[in-house]
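Entry type: protein chain
Record version: 2
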Amino acid sequence: MSRDVIQAVIDLVPELTDFGIGIYDNGRGLDKAQKKAEFDKNQSSLLDSSESFEKAVFWLKQVGKIKSFNPHRSSYGLKHLAEKDIGYITNGVFIAAAIHSGFKYKITPQNPNVQFNMSEKSLKILEKA
């Protein structure tokens, strides 16, 4: 079930991998075939992350939505906050879970991290918990 849900998010954001948006260092130093292989490997790994995806979706139920994007937090920092409660997850798993959970997202070119419309107030409550 979760694999299909993760695939649906990838269909929305084709550049999403386990790393986040794209691959580490944009694949600098790799030729085109190596970049594609690395991308495919990272995307396959994301698809195989059903358990951590489900934990992240459950954790995100505690986070409020706001109208605008929260400029103070990126997906990478947010995944670390979630990890305090649910254990290790990748940036890509967090992004996929947030998009599936209905958060609006903003992708910045050449950046593996994503911004969301997550309430700073609710995030601060989770930090103190």
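Comment: The chain has one domain: 2-128.
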